[in-house]
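Person: Show me a sequence?

Helper:
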Amino acid sequence: QVQLVESGGGLVQPGGSLRLSCAASGSDFSIYAMGWYRQAPGKQRELVAVITRGSTTNYAESVKGRFTISRDSAKDAVYLQMNSLKPEDTAVYYCNANTHSTVVADSRRIYWGQGTQVTVSA
């Protein structure tokens, strides 16, 4: 029903910036919340940031003050502006969407993007 496609990953030097984008496509859905997770080498997948339809945001402590999540509800898109990147930010970043169907009552679905690689290295 819903497909999530991430873009914007790449290789940057420490202190640099990247902007990740995630676009949702499909039909008969609406989004409650969207977020970003990451899987770093040797670590479990962790939540990076989330934004709800009420425009509340939450961030992992490790990225507070450096990353900013935003959402364009009209486009069903979410963005992650990453500044002051550190080598520790190197990971595969996954877009996540918490959705419900507009045609099926009492439905809730979680969708994941395919992931985009972010590498922070000199």
Summary: The mean pLDDT is 95. The longest strand covers residues 29-39. Residues 32 and 43 are 28 Å apart (CA to CA). DSSP finds no helices and eleven strands in the chain.
